[in-house]
Amino acid sequence: MAIIGGGFAGLCCARAAARRGLSVLLLDRRPAPGARVHTTGLVVKEAAQRWEIPATLTRRVRGVRLYAPSLACLDLDAAGYYFLATDTSALLRWLAREATRAGAHLRFGRPYRGARRDGDAFVLAGGGERVRDIVGADGPRSAVAQDFGLGRNTRFLLGVEAEWDGVAGIDPDRLHCFLDRALAPGYLGWVVPGVHGVAQVGLACRRPQKPDLPAFERKLAALFDFRAARRVGTRGGLIPVGGPVAPFARDGVLLVGDAAGWVSPLSAGGIHTALESGWAAAHAIADHRREGAPPPSRALAAARPRFASKRALRALYDVGVPDAVFDAAIATRPFAALARSIYFHHRGLRSAAGWRDLAHTLVRGPA
b vs e for 266-303, b when ≥16 Cβ sit within 10 Å of the residue's Cβ? Predict the structure, then answer.
């Protein structure tokens, strides 16, 4: 099988497929694993536990501080829950080593140039390798999806992030999130106290708007001290928020991760679902090829997220909530319960605990 793309979904797929005994070739145009990272790299607790990410590559963040446009704030916590800020490049290199150790062949510096069908196989352009399956893990603008007539992402956020060394005054135990319709229409800004003392300062907005990161950093100067800080890196890219694409599979070709739209339309979180979709695709293909199970698309169709409630909230958020509403709501218990259900998965709106929180706070009324 060939996997196109060496991000979280592709590397997880390569590792799992090789462990199941499949011959795996992964192609990626970037020169090395972890090069030109486009994601903040924030990992939720569920993913950290499921994939046993090395602690040396992470930094635990236990809660969220949510800011209204006026910079009034609300602290959110859930017992036992946490997020992991990651050294994202190092984490991807670790995943690449794990995939290689399992027996996958990784070819970084080799872009995907297309493939043609030849009987029951595909022939990869540029190398001539014959493979029976192709997995498109090549991001939100998937070339695999385009080549094989699969569904494509059409709704995006555009995000940009700067890495700063030496910013003072950041609470290291909080993921700092900023609501601001003017600066971040359709999403928010963030400050993550990252690994090795580097703070990640980012902003995203609904396309076609473009994020004004310098303006956001000027606003942050009221909270954090940038005077002795220096910028050490930047990253950015598109985040699909339209939900799963359709069709996501056809005749030996599957999409996973961002290419498949497996990204939360509301929170824009995609690492957890990228890892899960890569793993699920690998096992579905192995079961089909080695055990005679039904086509992989059937197994993936059952596993892929629907994001029904999050897509509805995304539509509401896209309409635009006035800043004055956030400023007034941030001090209320119902708003705190809703925010907690969004940020902490085990208390989300698909959980009994999340609905109990909302019912309890709605009955008691605002603080």
Answer: bbbbbbbbbbbbbbbbbbbbbebbeeeeebbbebbeee
What pLDDT was estimated at residue 352?
A: 57
β-bridge mates for residue 159, sequence order: 204, 237
State the pLDDT at residue 360: 55
pLDDT of residue 306: 83
Q: How many CA atoms lie within 13 A of 256 on its CB side?
A: 39
Residue 103 region by backbone torsions, left for phi larger than 0, else alpha for psi between -120 and 50, else beta: left
Can you tell me which residue has the tokens 């695999």?
A: 144
Q: Residue 314: how many CA atoms within 13 Å on its side-chain side?
A: 20
**Can you say whether the dihedral through the CA atoms of 161, 82, 328, 335 is positive or negative?**
positive
Residues 6+ apart with CB under 8 A from 176: 64, 65, 67, 170, 190, 191, 192
**β-bridge partners, 63:** 174
Strand order across the 121-124 sheet:
115-118, 121-124, 130-131
Residue 30 carries which DSSP code?
S
AA letter at 224: F
pLDDT of residue 309: 77
CA atoms within a 13 Å half-sphere pointing along the CA-CB vector of 80: 5
Whether 254 and 133 have beta carbons less than 8 Å apart is answered as: yes
What residues in the chain have per-residue pLDDT under 50? 347-350, 365-367
For residue 357, what pLDDT is reported? 53
Q: How many angstroms separate the Cα of 46 from the Cα of each of 65, 83, 261?
A: 20, 9, 20
What's the CA angle centered on 9, arms 6 and 14, to 5 degrees? 65
Residue 365, pLDDT score: 46
